[in-house]
Amino acid sequence: MNILKIYHVQEEYIKFLRKYDDKVTIIKEHGKPRPYVGIVYEINGFKYFAPFSSPEKDDDGNLTEDYKKCFSRNSNPTYEKIEELKYGTIQINNMIPVPETELIYFEIDNIEDKNYRTILKDQFVYCDNNKERILNKANKLYKMVTVFKQPHFVGLSCRFKLLEQKCKEYEYAKRIEKQALEEALATKE
Q1: Which 8-state DSSP code applies to residue 108?
Q2: Considering just the CA atoms, what is the radius of gyration of the chain in Å?
Q3: Which residue would you say has higher pLDDT here, 111 or 140?
Q4: Which of 74, 77, 130, 162 has its CA 20 to 30 A from that of 179?
């Protein structure tokens, strides 16, 4: 398996998907959108992006009790704890199909906030060292939602099949838009 890379997703694409599924998350920090950062792997012929979540800590820097309770089960396929929550989670249930054109390679070293940069580096190392397990969890959850339609997991997860359809529609619309622009430019010459 290749080394994983960290990406973020174009905000326009996230907003497009949210029209069809409100489980597509928009991450905000202090009221402002923050880059939607995570890892990408392939499922069902689509590039799927799974977002990271940062750990929730109290004023003393310890994980909050609510946060620990929320992620108390080890075998839950909807998320992957990163170093027992020390560095947050991978929100597998919030994974979304993304066209290659909407993925932006995320350069961790360009992050000014030293604490956030450290968390991202630790998340990356964990993901790369555990990529097979993460991919197995993602495939398992995908099947539980799309094939077996287990109500509990369907209720917690994005609507994968619908989002795959919308991903194709988005790609098609972008291709048509690009062709129209190229034709317009060609006629001006």
Answers
A1: G
A2: 18
A3: 140
A4: 162
Structural domains counted in the chain: 1
pTM for the model: 0.92
Cα 135 to Cα 176: distance, rounded to the nearest angstrom: 33
Round to whole Å and give the CA distance between 162 and 21.
8
Give percent above pLDDT 90 in the chain.
71
Task: Kindly report the CATH number assigned to the domain that includes residue 115.
Answer: 3.10.129.130
pLDDT tens digits, one per residue of 96-116: 999 999 999 999 999 898 988
Query: For residue 77, is it within any domain?
Result: yes
pLDDT tens for each residue of 33-60 = 567 799 999 999 999 999 998 888 899 9
* Residue 149 domain boundaries: 6-188
Whether residue 1 lies inside any domain: the answer is no
Using alpha carbons, list the distances in angstroms from residue 85 to 52, 80, 92: 11, 9, 15
Longest CA pairwise span in the chain (Å): 64
Q: Considering the domain boundaries, does residue 117 fall inside one?
A: yes
Q: Is residue 129 part of a domain?
A: yes
Residue 178: helix, strand or coil by DSSP? helix
Residues 118 and 112: their CA atoms lie apart, in Å, by: 11
